[in-house]
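In this section we walk through a basic example: taking a raw amino acid sequence and producing a predicted 3D structure, encoded as discrete structure tokens. The instruction is simple. Fold the sequence below.
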Amino acid sequence: MSELVRFLREKMWILGDTRWYARVDSVRGELVEVERLGYAQLDARARAVGAWLSDRTAPGAHVLLMYPAGLEFFTAFLGCLYAGRVAVPAPLPDTDRRALRRAEGIIRDAGVGLVLSDSAHRPALAAWLAGPAPAARAECVATDETVRAAPDTWSPVSLELSATAYIQYTSGSTSEPRGVVISHRNLLHNLLSIRRNLVTDEVLDELRHDPAPTGAGWLPHYHDMGLVGMLLSPLTSYGNLVFCSPVSYIAHPLLWLRMISRYRAFYTFAPNFGYDWLLRSLGTGRLTELDPELDLDCLRYAISGAEPVRADVLTAVARRLAPIGFRPDIWAPCYGLAEATLMVTGTPCGRGATVRRFDRDALEAGAAVPAPDGVELVACGGPAGVDVRIVDPATSQPLKDGHVGEIWVCGDSVAGGYLGNPQATAEHFAATTADGDGPCLRTGDLGFFLDGELYVTGRAKDLIIVNGRNIHPQDIERLSETTDPAAGPCAAFALPDASGREHIVLVQEIRPVHLDGRSPAALAGLIRRRLDRELRLAVRVVIVGPMSVPRTTSGKIQRTRTREQLRAAHLAPLHSDLPVTDLAQDRYRGPT
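The resulting token sequence is shown next.
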């Protein structure tokens, strides 16, 4: 038996059904528990799937998991681990052409011959797989109606820690999605690192009367933070989990707070946009009027990760939720990525977020100089079981604390590479510093260390270099989004004009309900003036409708794709500062 599988099953055997996983939903405005499985039940169903897979697939076979949010996915994922088959989590493809192309690409790239789903979605998936697409050779099986193997027929499979556990496809925010090959060693090491951040000595003392911390979340199970951070980590911390689907959360944001309150959750987790969505959705009324039973004084650990953590969002959420028991010291910013399984750095439970101000001009020049009136940055904690370096990307020379460079990671959480892509694997996973240390993962992220904590400043690929200044697009986006209630998500990037000179362009979504009779051009003017005043930048603003800026399946803004769509006239501007000559003249719709 794999050491990872032994580790997970040991927890289930010891705790039985005294620990549980529960999925909830909002039904007519009320929280309803839809399904629940205790650890022992979860293990039995996983063994049944494992036995079925052992009889019908070859060792090491790649199995695509396409499920809605729920425990059927989790039992199938564990069943793959139990059987020594390689799970490939993926979102259910909808009618969107790009989503279908992504799913077809994963099937081809991973060499998938079997797709597992549930009975509700199998007919549509089977029809799609039987269509003209090159991926049509894969068979689709519904585990909830086909798997009838007895759990006791499962036999442990002997696997080394170096064996592949699953393939995690990246979200594709800066490039096409790639399959990250995660080994049993990678997953076990990262789970233990996460537990060390959550279950500190102080937490153990606090939990001595109830040693079962409950987590509450809504993250998609096919992404690294949802799979490892939400679904798998409770097993390692002897805890429970209550969760809902991302769709349910977006439609009913209050459901998240109700989960925390009703189940007395000890910790929760989300990207920055999840907390921001909650804040925007709650409005300005009294929370006790929305639900008089809301009580968050049980919450001790609120993780923010997967995308840049914004200090203004942390402050605003803590202030808004304070009347129902939310404490600012429970914030726990983290940094991670799929290529390192999940967590790279983290803030231990009980420490709270470190927020400091730095001189903007110095940051643009590559130095972190504290300044009382500078730009606010949130620390993402210290290394979580890995060695993290800040390296000059041009010279591979390690940099001292307080200097901005590329973030490199070494250690057992770092994956082996990208599936079927030796060139990208060598480029990203085999880096060696100028003094000979390695191999390390080049994350492509920029940041610096100060007082033992990592500050992430942006993505190297997204960096805008204009007039000798290094501008991080999220600085532009953050100011634009907070200029006016009518300003929604946006994407900033550099775009050459007809003469070849690069200018900064901002594609800004609008919230029409908040325009209050103003024109899109008026909103663009407000944004331009603020960016000029606070960043000393001349920015050309393009106003578009809601949900026009491309996003990944996890909700991250795709700046490169936004730029491409703008140049190809695939966006429909409501207002544009761009001259027609800057774009494809024969296809550009022009400013309005």
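Looking at the output, two observations stand out. Residues 392 and 405 are 5 Å apart (CA to CA). Residues 584-592 have pLDDT under 50 and may be disordered. In the next section we compare this with other chains.
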